[in-house]
Write a structure and sequence with these properties.
The complex is a heterodimer of chains A (about 240) and B (about 80). In chain A, about 70% of the residues lie in helices and about 0% in strands. With about 240 residues, chain A is mostly helical. In chain A, helix 5 runs antiparallel to helix 7. Chain A is globular, with a radius of gyration of 20 Å. With about 80 residues, chain B is mainly alpha-helical. A two-stranded antiparallel ribbon of chain B has the order 1-2. Classes of the chains: A mainly alpha (about 240), B mainly alpha (about 80). At the A-B interface, helix 3 of A face helix 2 and helix 3 of B.
Chain lengths: ~240, ~80
């Protein structure tokens, strides 16, 4: 029966839409006042609080388990970072040039860990990594296009050639579904290349915060994806439908 | 220390026998298709309530659907 093959695509729930809108609006309005960041916080954490209180029942038990495990992973990661920071600042007279950036970085570590962990738990390594790489490649694609238009216009050739740099991400997204372990090794290799490229292995002039942001934005998603793909069994099962 | 129990299930077998898709089964028991997929792959052990719902849909007992792992796997 043909209709048996019809599969519902993922659709955002009303809660996702409202919470997502609040997060986006919060971040857009920080240019007016940083207090609007609390709107983004409300969008991020309020659904979880309501679920824990039993007032919101928009997830099934498997989704709740994934969210709770992700919360635990975020606690482990950000807790460890917090301890390192406390030890660092209390072990001597430390001066950080951009304390607000450091606070933002801490928040980003927490959120990125939670998000990636939830994707892994809910979709499994292959599908999660596939979508992370697509998202990562798309962000880079938009960035390369945006940086080549407007005031920094350098000609059509640059506009057409620079986006080609994002092709490997889409290629690896495709490869991850077919050959997860090989793609995992490739991603780890690329991560090490990026770490070398950004000077993580030598004494560079990048500050602590800049290094953290660089790691989180450029290397973190690739490294985490590579590790996740290496955990896939030799004969990954298909989803069937 | 508690012994660790692996649980295998015959959800996929019963679903195919009932000629249902994962989405149809998910709709019947009120969960997402991803949840059914994870149960069938043995990556997620459902709650007693969900196990009872699944057993009810297939018209079998929970023990027929979920068993302590004795080497047999499904899916």
């Amino acid at each position: 029966m043909a209709e048996k093959k019809v599969r519902k695509r993922w659709q955002p729930t009303r809660t996702n839409l409202v919470a997502g809108s609040m997060v986006v609006a919060g971040f857009m309005l920080v240019s007016l006042s940083w207090w609007f960041l609390l709107l983004a916080a409300l969008g991020t954490f309020a659904p979880g609080v309501l679920r824990e209180m039993g007032w919101l029942r928009d997830k099934d038990e498997f989704q709740l388990q994934a969210a709770r495990r992700a919360g635990y992973h975020a606690f482990l990661t950000s807790g460890l970072v917090a301890f390192v920071l406390v030890a660092f600042f209390r072990s001597g007279e430390r001066v950080v040039e951009d304390p607000e950036e450091l606070a933002t970085l801490f928040l980003a570590v927490l959120w990125c860990t939670w998000f990636f962990s939830m994707l892994l738990d809910f979709w499994g390594p292959q599908k999660a990594v596939h979508r992370v790489l697509i998202a990562f490649g798309s962000c880079w694609l938009l960035f390369t296009i945006a940086s080549n238009v407007g005031s920094e216009w350098t000609g059509w050739a640059a506009l057409l050639l620079h986006p080609l740099l994002t092709l490997p991400f889409f290629a690896m997204a495709s490869l991850s579904l077919r050959w997860p372990r090989i793609t995992g090794i490739l991603l780890l290799t690329i991560s090490i290349f990026f770490m070398q490229f950004f000077g993580f292995f030598r004494n560079n002039n990048l500050g602590l915060v800049t290094q953290g942001v660089t790691f989180l934005l450029f290397i973190g998603p690739l490294l985490a994806s590579g590790v996740a793909l290496l955990s896939v069994s030799r004969h990954p099962e298909s989803e069937e439908e | 220390m508690k012994p660790r129990h692996d649980i295998c299930n015959l959800v996929r077998r019963h679903r195919l026998m009932a000629d249902m898709t994962q989405q149809e089964l998910a709709d019947r028991v009120g969960v997402t298709r991803q949840t059914i997929l994870s149960i069938e792959k043995g990556k997620y052990t459902p709650s007693v309530a969900l196990a009872l719902c699944l057993a009810e849909v297939f018209g079998v007992s929970v023990e027929k659907l979920f068993q302590l792992n004795k080497g047999e796997t499904d899916g």
